[in-house]
Structure formats: C-alpha cells, structure tokens
Structure prediction request, 87 residues.
Amino acid sequence: MDAKVVDVLNRIKHLADIRAIRFTRHGRERADERGANFEDVREALMTASTSKPDGDKYKVEGGRDLDGDSLTVVVAIEEKLLVVTLF
Prediction:
C-alpha cells in the first residue's frame, strides 16, 4: 500500500480513536437509514483496511460496525473527522 495512503488511514484511525468525528446532515441521515450510530461509525473507521482518495474526500473501506457488519464511510479530514456519508 502506498505510504501516503497508509498515513491517511492512520490519521483517520487516530481521529476516530479520540472520538474526533462530526457528521454532516447527509451523513447523519444515511447513518439513521442504515441503523448505524456514532459508535458503529467509529468502529468501522478504526477497523478499516483501506482509504481511497475521492476528490477532497476519502472512501474508507474494510471496516466493520459493532455488529460485525461491513460499513464503508466517506470522510473529509478537517479539524475533526467529518463523516460525509456511509453505506
């Protein structure tokens, strides 16, 4: 895996670890639709195996929520980790 990709994934995991997560309205709506809460998203980010650049955002894949279900999260890294959407 590319060193920059690893650095980004490590930063995302660190921000999730310290609970520096903020949802957009769209992200909150998608989480509610999927029955995911803050802790599910946090767990998916902390257990993710890849992050792929998507414009100014990152698609974070390979993570699992608290029930062990696969959860992909799209984030923008700002002061706090901004959750844009999930699926």
User: Anything to note?
Assistant: Residues 73 and 86 are 4 Å apart (CA to CA). DSSP finds three helices and five strands in the chain.
